[in-house]
Amino acid sequence: MSDTAPLDLVHRPRRLRRTPGVRALIRETHVRAEDLIAPLFVVDGEVPPEEIASMPGVFRRSIVDVVRECRELADLGVRAVALFPKLDAGLKRADGAHALDAESLILRTVRAVKAAVPEMLVVADIALDPYTTHGHDGVLTADGKDVDNDKTVAVLARMAVMHAEAGVDWVAPSDMMDGRVGAIRRALDAARHEGVAILAYSAKFNSGYYGPFREAVGSAQAAGTTLLGKQTYQLDPANRIEAVKDALLDETEGADVLMVKPAGPYLDVIRELRDATRLPIAAYQVSGEYAQIHAAARLGWLDLERCREESLLAIKRAGADMILSYFARDIAEARRAGR
């Protein structure tokens, strides 16, 4: 028997942590399959899925296999996918002209997915980095030293309309050019695609966490480096106020959803943007975030499932309504299994 007298406490927070049932009743934040958007990489031709070395469990897939994956994701409760093409090097040009080809890989993929799995919400990336020889998100200036903002915006607006005609539900400009949301909204409306929404990459930072993605779509190989500098158009990681300002400009130009990318290192920006707008907030748990969790787990330093869950809970708790994550299928399967 202990001689220690009970503490005279009115409030004992541990009372609400005692059992699984109590903890479930008071849990504030949930990550559900339907909160997630699954990024998928597509390649041309009849080829088997190819795992991306730096992203365990993530594959480049043919159109047929992307359709199959979309059908399985829908059955698991994932309601949206974001499509990204990896093109043959021979299709890349300095001006990214193939982005405006009506029979481009991504447009054929969109048409195939919407025909086979019409209930799946399809998000299409609107940027030129998969299409350019230099790996930048737009058309370069005459001296080749920077991206030409206005010329790029004109291309992106045409690109968005072509994606709308192919059947996408949302276009997602990820380039960070000034004024591109307004130009895309006007172009979509003029083409009678008023129902196509814009998920704007509104606070996209010049991050070091994009390396595996650039490998996946081949933009790193085009540039010859995973350290491609995009600091003249992507946000400085040091700037929170500027990020919120940029995002709110996208809202005034007609964005339907505002996104923060990357997610985990920028939870403060997600929270501040959540407090500043009534638009839905998306966050992209990017390739580097995914890769580092897997890498540490493979070394036995982290529990993969626990850290996967905790990373997504943190993003949702910060204020994101939806999350683009390479863990989408894993989470959906876990929820189906009751975990």
User: What would the principal axes of the Cα set say about the shape?
Assistant: globular
Secondary-structure arrangement, i.e. CATH architecture = Alpha-Beta Barrel
CATH class: Alpha Beta
Q: Report the mean per-residue pLDDT as an integer.
A: 95
The total domain count is 1
Strand content: 5-15%
Give keywords.
12 helices; TIM Barrel; 339 residues; eight-stranded parallel beta barrel; alpha/beta
Short description:
By secondary structure, this protein is of the alpha/beta class. The protein contains twelve helices and ten strands. It has a single domain, classed as Aldolase class I (TIM Barrel), CATH 3.20.20.
Task: Describe this entry's structure for a reader.
With 339 residues, the chain is α/β, with parallel strands linked by helices. The protein has a single domain, classed as Aldolase class I (TIM Barrel), CATH 3.20.20.70. The protein is built from twelve helices and ten strands. It has helices at residues 20-26, 63-76, 105-116, 149-166, 180-190, 211-217, 219-223, 240-253, 267-276, 287-298, 304-318, 328-336, and strands at residues 36-42, 50-51, 59-61, 80-85, 121-126, 170-173, 197-204, 257-261, 281-285, 322-325. It has an eight-stranded parallel beta barrel with strand order 1-4-5-6-7-8-9-10, surrounded by eight helices. Helix 8 packs across helix 9. The longest helix has 18 residues, at 149-166. The mean pLDDT is 95.
Helices and strands in order:
Elements: H1 20-26, E1 36-42, E2 50-51, E3 59-61, H2 63-76, E4 80-85, H3 105-116, E5 121-126, H4 149-166, E6 170-173, H5 180-190, E7 197-204, H6 211-217, H7 219-223, H8 240-253, E8 257-261, H9 267-276, E9 281-285, H10 287-298, H11 304-318, E10 322-325, H12 328-336
Parallel strand pairs: 1-3, 1-4, 1-10, 4-5, 5-6, 6-7, 7-8, 8-9, 9-10
Antiparallel strand pairs: 2-3
Helix pairs in contact: 2-3, 4-5, 8-9
